[in-house]
Each structure stands twice: as C-alpha cells, then as structure tokens.
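Supplementary Methods. Inverse-folding protocol.

Structures were first reduced to a discrete structure-token string of length 110. This string, shown here, constituted the complete conditioning input.
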C-alpha cells in the first residue's frame, strides 16, 4: 500500500520537476543571459538537491511502472513476492539515482 501511495506522489512530483526542465529548455532557447541565470540556480546547492530529488522521483516512478508492467503479465502477484518487491523498490531507486549522478559527474569531468 505504501509503495502504491508513493507511486502516486512521485507521479505528481514529476509534473513539477518537468516544469524545471521546461524552464531550462526555454532559457536555452531565449537568451544566453537567461540561460546562465537558470544554470546558476540549478547549479547551486539547493538546485542540485532539487535535481537529485527529481532524479530519484523519476527512478522510483519508473521502477513502479515496471512493477505494474510485470504484474500485468500475471507474475509477482503473490503476497510474498509483492512484499519483497515493495521493500526493494526504495533501495533500487536510490542506487540508480546515485549511479546516474556518479556517471554524470564522471562524464562531465567534475
């Protein structure tokens, strides 16, 4: 039940995170000064925390969607299986989020 509720919450949070990405894209299309301002905001500590949270929300929601896709095939519907998957979801989503950020920083060279 908790993962179902969290899946709905992360779906709603994706809406607001996507607005941040749209803001960045609009800034990139308008002017260099606006783009630099948005990059400064998103590059700040708070901005990076928000982007990290957005990445986690995206990963958690994606894993929940994959879980539902697997359930649609009839697999993993037993109580013990669904409980194990529900317990693993937060750990998997955090691990994927950290992996994405580590790879991102490695590619960026920071």
């Amino acid at each position: 039940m908790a993962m179902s509720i969290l899946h709905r919450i992360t779906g709603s949070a994706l809406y607001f995170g996507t607005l941040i990405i749209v803001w960045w894209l609009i800034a990139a299309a308008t002017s260099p000064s606006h783009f630099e301002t948005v990059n400064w905001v998103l590059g700040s500590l708070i901005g990076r925390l928000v982007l990290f949270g957005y990445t986690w929300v995206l990963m958690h929601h994606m894993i929940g969607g994959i879980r539902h896709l697997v359930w649609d095939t009839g697999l993993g519907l037993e109580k013990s299986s669904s409980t194990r998957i529900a317990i693993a979801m937060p750990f998997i989503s955090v691990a994927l989020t950290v992996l994405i950020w580590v790879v991102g920083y490695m590619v960026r060279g920071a």
